[in-house]
UniProtKB/TrEMBL annotation:
Keywords noted in UniProt: Cytoplasm, Metal-binding, Zinc
Protein name (record): Protein SprT
A Gene Ontology biological process term: response to stress
All residue ranges annotated as the SprT-like domain in the record: 16-165
Coiled coil start-end: none
Length: 169
């Protein structure tokens, strides 16, 4: 993975938002929460992830840099809500009622499960396969499974086995 350095002012903005959201949660729930460890190591098209047992939030540096304020406004509360839901309620559904409660009632942010950022710059290579009726796009992970003989993909329309075209996208 190529290392992407997040500019210091942007890291500071992330931390400021994290602290502000933690204060909101502390005031609402009347208890203090430790600051989660933040890393900028999330890869792929995922904006962020919460590592519950480690009390850590991983952020995608490329998507953060490309979508600065929207990312901070949406992704930070989203991932922090996962940690807080786990802390308050234990193991619950990832985007269940407990998580939604924290997002909507405490943070006053829409409880969107996924981001809407453009992922063109972080999308991995797509491999073109075909069958008797159409073209199919497989991810590099799916393609590698085919190469290793672990998976064989079949078209849902015609039932024919997919064959690599030799082209990529």
């Amino acid at each position: 993975m190529k290392f992407v350095s997040v500019p210091l002012p942007l890291q500071q903005a992330v931390m400021h938002t994290m602290q502000r959201r933690l204060t909101q949660a502390s005031n609402f729930l009347q208890q203090r929460f430790p600051e989660p460890h933040i890393t900028y190591q999330q890869r792929g098209t995922i904006a962020g992830s919460a590592r519950l047992q480690d009390w850590e939030i991983r952020l995608n540096p490329v998507l953060l840099i490309e979508n600065q304020q929207a990312f901070i406004d949406q992704v930070i509360p989203h991932e922090l809500a996962h940690l807080l839901a786990y802390h308050q309620f234990g193991k619950v559904a990832p985007h269940g009622k407990e998580w939604r409660f924290i997002m909507e009632m405490i943070f006053e942010v829409p409880a969107n499960r996924t981001h809407q950022f453009s992922v063109n710059s972080v999308r991995s290579k797509i491999f073109i396969y075909y069958c008797g009726c159409q073209q199919h796009e497989l991810t590099i992970r799916q393609h590698n499974k085919v190469l290793r003989g672990k998976n064989c993909y079949v078209c849902r329309q015609c039932g024919e086995k997919l064959t690599l075209s030799g082209r990529t996208k």
